[in-house]
Amino acid sequence: MNDIRTSPTVQKRAGTLEAIAAVLAIDRRDKLAELLTDQDVETLRHLVNAGMGENTLRALTSDLTYLEAWSLAATRSPLPWPAPEALLLKFVAHHLWDSRRRETDAGHGMPTDVEEVLRHSGFLRVVGPHAPGTVRRRLANWSTLTKWRRLDGAFASPALKSAIRLAVRSTNRPRRRKSAKAITGDVLTKLLDTCAGERLVDLRDRALLMVAFASGGRRRSEVAGLCVDDLTNEEPVRADPTDKNSPLLHCLAIRLARTKTATNSDNEHVALIGRPVTALKRWLAAAKIDSGPIFRRIDQWGNLNRRALTPQSVNLILKARVKQAGLDPALFSAHGLRAGYLAEAANRGIPLLEAIQLSRHKSVTHAGGYYTNAEYKL
């Protein structure tokens, strides 16, 4: 393994990956350099230069790395481009299978040797069949990468579609929410109590949680991607608009980056008012941040990094605060802030259409689920 890592080819790949790491937020550059081929790396660099959204690039990189690792474990060869239909069917068979049949048929599903290799290398963490959504996403990204190479794949073949449909039916996995419990106002208060100190990490986490919740329940990718240039100071507003003597509250406008439901051309903004603005400005002042990413990494010694948090880091920060608050991290995720904002709005009697003006949900039906599902709100 040492010879592989120090080979000129791998070193060259590592250098190319380093050059695009600022966009892709790559933490495992050396591992990626071993797994990805020269053509893979060149494709990623092309996508960066083409201006593809950062979140899409991260997803493509993550899925491409997994696919290459799986191919090496399952076929002893890198991914072929384009992938033959038989390989696509093998991928489905290895990831979508019937747990009950596996109990009596050891050859059903992912082979034990393939599973051990992927698990040992850290690429396989789930126990049992994968979620159908994960498999579909990886196949979709596999198809996208194939098209970027100007090749045609068998991703639309009837055999593949039928295999996925039958496999999903056999797995019979219950649909799970992204966060089992919503982070409503009372839960948020407990989390904020854990970061009431004056350390940089406390100031950052307090600002992060308050901004994410109060700005409409922002997605973790939106929080991680916030930059100083996305903030615009607005005129203060009255705590009670009907009382000219009520105290003035600081106000900011936040420009939203591209997401799965919004693009830069949408030029969307949301308002942030009061205590969250104060918390955010305290963090920026203490960290001496006047440009670039707002929420950044802080190492174990309290040193601030210039690089932005990743969406995954936002989720880990939230779970860490949940644990410190004496709650079960398995029941909460960063999406709980988004669900919690709408659930809290419902609890306070705020009309749904008014609430989604800030949350920016494109589907009233989807957002309405948080209003009508009492169990989720509690």
Describe the structure.
The chain has 19 helices and five strands. It is mainly alpha-helical and about 375 residues long. The protein has two domains: about 1-170, no CATH class; about 185-375, hpI Integrase, Chain A, CATH 1.10.443.10. Strands 1-2-3 form a three-stranded antiparallel β-sheet. The radius of gyration is 23 Å and the shape is elongated.
Which descriptors apply to this entry?
disordered N terminus, 2 domains, two-stranded antiparallel sheet, three-stranded antiparallel β-sheet, 378 residues, mainly alpha, disordered C terminus, hpI Integrase, Chain A, 55% helix, elongated
Annotated CATH architecture of the largest domain: Orthogonal Bundle
List segments where confidence is low: pLDDT < 50 over at least 5 consecutive residues.
1-5, 22-26, 259-265, 371-378
CATH homologous superfamily caption of the largest domain = Intergrase catalytic core
* Most strands sheet: 3 strands, antiparallel
Overall geometry: elongated
Mean pLDDT: 80
CATH fold group of the largest domain? hpI Integrase, Chain A
The H/E string reads HHHHHHHHHHHHHEEEHEEHHHHH
Total number of β-strand segments?
A: 5
